[in-house]
């Protein structure tokens, strides 16, 4: 890192003056607690007793045989409490909020997974919680809206702009500007102004720490390839981080190509089609026009439906350490069905993008090679939208 | 001061009468269309605005309340671009020599090309830029180019700036934009800020005039605020009139601007 909060030239702290002191306060609090023994002990207990960590590393034998290439392991983040990796970050951030004496936590959410995880931890710790969610996403993920309400959180639909994840972030940032003294903004991915990209990655890096320990135990060696899906990029940063220095491990991120990267704004393939910009607090890669207007994006996956990518991913690509592939809705839905049938595991539609990428890559690898796919979440929430995609009517009653 | 720029903004403050405060008004460029924007700008200057801020519409204006968000979206739907706004500035410069400022998000400058952008500002006669999502620490993104082209980078301080006020105010030029309250732009019926303590910090450190904005929506508020500072900034209240009357808002905006200026003379 060349400067504080920078990954190469990416990252930074591009926020309105009104929140600068809050950002610095957070930075100082995080610097203090990240190496604090008691904080880490509390977090470790929460991970173990509440979130069900360590998550399993499962050998997908039938999938391995079927694809005929690398030996495939699945990192089962879908088995965490609340059904996704998001809980790792929320436990860390909301515990920090509590240490900082904040009474109110706000969050943005796309698919609803981060919103549910934030609402869950706020319920656990007795903090007020408000979640901003694009009105479109509220419709697509009404079950998650109900779950958040059940957990005691207020869900505020956002109608501005494209009424999806980026607009929910805009509205959460506006709330933060307005309620800076009382409110902690719990960002759900490795994005936003410093210290968020670093802090969120640190709360997620337990994924790769565990993968490393588990694979050493099972195979006695490092994997050859780790695959994860990328929206903002938190599960992928978590799955990649402890392998960055292990140059023999190929790191592959799968982003959402929606209806195809060559369609007009019917994708969310930031790495494939984005350009350098400054937005949502960070310098990174964004889907935007020649005047810097942020593009509306599309993906069947509400969790990957974001026009940017976290700054550390932009950096990892620039230095050639990680590679990024684009997976269409069709490929993702195919992978969703494939993993369900071949292993009896229904992956989140987000994670299905990683599975689809793995299905392309694994057969090109030899049988003595090892691949790990991060199954970042479970797919129960997506059954309805996948059925709809397939033209199947489900009676919701 | 961080630079030795002297342009229309500095002259404007120098030319104010004793006890007269500057009136800075904001409209979104291209809402409802650029032709109306030009007419509105000339009318506002005519009725007492000393400096005009033209808002460059952005798809995701995180520092704006609902009024300017809507206005920004209207302008984008109308097909407004930065190049078209520069053309309007050129048209305005044929008719007025008063200070013009662009208020815009950093990505708009960055993606356009920072050097190209400031060269155009110089060529067309833009005197300053306000970039609400660029804090003081990240000012190097634009400061060198702005200085080289004689354009003021207008810094902001807010009620939450506290110990930062000294650092920012002591290195500001053109004017210092004092944000009246936390939150986003938009009209407010009252303010919770302790202006005495905020302005004692500002006035101790400032090297250029200080103007207050965010939420000032009528002559009475403008009059009260002007006691603390060298100028007042009014945005959403004007944008609301434009929203209501569209292309026919010229006269209404003119009357409102006159009433604001009369309150701060």
Outline of this structure?
Chain A is an alpha/beta fold and 397 residues long. Helices cover 43% and strands 19% of the residues of chain A. Chain A has helices spanning 17-33, 37-50, 61-67, 86-99, 113-125, 135-140, 142-150, 165-178, 196-204, 206-219, 234-240, 270-273, 311-318, 329-343, 349-361, 383-389, and strands at 6-7, 10-14, 57-59, 71-76, 104-109, 128-134, 154-158, 183-185, 225-229, 250-258, 275-279, 281-286, 322-328, 370-375.
Tags for this model:
heterodimer, A: 397 residues, alpha/beta, 6-stranded mixed sheet, 4-stranded antiparallel sheet, 19% strand, B: 265 residues, TIM Barrel, 9-stranded parallel sheet, 12 helices
What's the overall geometry of chain B?
globular
Oligomer: heterodimer
SSE pattern of chain B, N- to C-terminal: HEHEHHEHHEHEEHEHEHEHH
Structural category of chain B: alpha/beta
What's the gyration radius of chain A in Å? 19 Å
Helix content of chain B: 40-55%
Strand content of chain A: 15-25%
Helix percent of chain A reads 40-55%
